[in-house]
Amino acid sequence: MPTMSSEDYYSKFLYFAYCWSLMRGDDVKTSPYKKGRRFEYLVRDELMKLGLIVFRAAKSSGRPRDAKHLYPPVDLIAFTRDGRAAFIECKATRRARVRLDGVERLPGPYFVITPENLESVLERVREWMSGK
Fold first, then answer.
1. What is the rounded distance in angstroms from the CA atom of residue 9 to the CA atom of residue 88?
2. Could you state, in order of their start, the residue ranges of all structural domains in the chain?
């Protein structure tokens, strides 16, 4: 078996790093899905810092097919330690549409978070957690 020189290893490493960056979307235009997912992760991390237990609905697109208009789209579900739940929709783009059909059926508060209102909604979540 032929041995590889350090230059060969290095060139293979650079190729791997380049392919990895393409897979992550660093060198190409970020898709709306990736942008939304990153924003959901950011919101999730902020909610976890507040002491909430947070679950993310991957590829949620809002709701199951058979419950088309029963519930609004929910990206994150946050639970307090005492079991209360809050439902969060994250909108990372400016042209995002918010569908509010079915909000009254949710068993807890419903928050819509955008990059512009992140801090104010997190303050409302803190108030909800404290029971005000």
1. 46
2. 1-29, 32-130
**What is the tens place of the pLDDT at every residue in 23-71?**
665 545 677 778 888 889 999 999 999 999 999 887 655 555 555 555 5
User: Is the Cβ–Cβ distance between 111 and 78 less than 8 Å?
Assistant: no
What distances in angstroms separate CA 1 from CA 25, 38, 72, one per listed residue? 36, 44, 60
Give the span between the Cα atoms of 71 and 60, in whole angstroms: 12
Is-contact 52 78, C-beta < 8 A? Answer: yes
Could you tell me the pTM of the whole model?
Answer: 0.68
Topology of domain 32-130 in CATH is: Trna Endonuclease; Chain: A, domain 1 (3.40.1350)
4 residue type, one letter: M
